């Protein structure tokens, strides 16, 4: 069995998001903007900080530099 809060809470959140938030959010947004300023992440002057070297990355984003080890499980002796 599923507990009652596991059913009721998602339904109430969906009702709020779908029907109540469009009317309530404009009323509370001035208070929210005062509590949480828009500039939450400080900007840095370093232009190359977020840029990585993508030419040596494979599809998953992992670098392929260095030695690659092949597992012996797939090899037949």
Keywords:
mainly alpha; 1 helix; flat; UPF0729 protein C18orf32 homolog; UPF0729_C18orf32-like
Q: Mean pLDDT, rounded to whole units? A: 73
Query: Which structural class best describes the helix and strand composition?
Result: mainly alpha
Quaternary state of the chains: single chain
Order of helices and strands: H
Round the Cα radius of gyration to an integer and report it: 25 Å
Q: Looking at the structure, what is the overall shape?
A: flat
- Name the helicity range: 40-55%
Family: Belongs to the UPF0729 family.
Protein name: UPF0729 protein C18orf32 homolog
Biased composition (Basic and acidic residues): 42-58
Subunit structure: Interacts with DERL1 and AMFR.
Structure characterization notes:
The chain is built from one helix and no strands. It is mostly helical and 77 residues long. 0% of the residues are buried. It has a domain of 35 residues.
List the helices and strands and how they pair.
Elements: H1 4-35
Quick summary:
This protein has one helix spanning 4-35. It has 77 residues and is mostly helical.
């Amino acid at each position: 069995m599923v507990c009652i809060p596991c059913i009721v809470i998602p339904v109430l959140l969906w009702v709020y998001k779908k029907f109540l938030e469009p009317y309530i959010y404009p009323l509370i947004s001035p208070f929210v903007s005062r509590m949480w300023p828009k500039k939450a992440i400080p900007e840095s002057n370093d232009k190359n900080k977020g840029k990585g070297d993508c030419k040596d990355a494979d599809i998953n984003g992992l670098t392929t530099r260095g030695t690659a080890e092949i597992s012996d499980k797939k090899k037949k002796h």
